[in-house]
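Page 42, continued from yesterday. The earlier attempt failed because a stray header line got pasted into the input along with the sequence. Redoing it now with the clean sequence only.
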Amino acid sequence: MENATMAHFADLLGSVIQNNLGPSGQQRIGNALQDLQANYLRQFAAKTGLHPAAVQTIHQTMGVAAV
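This time it went through. Structure tokens are written below.
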């Protein structure tokens, strides 16, 4: 249920961004989200002891966009 809620929120947020921001604003938001995801992957790798490439592969397999 939590994943479905997050997916719905992500879709809603994406629609709001697309409909209300110009291209430069969309690019800034996209860059911020990529930075956030990269930071999350680094922290996850550090906490689990997994190699960062392995963590990224796991997330890609689960359908999470690559950083």
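Notes: DSSP finds three helices and no strands in the chain.
Reminder to self: strip header lines before submitting.
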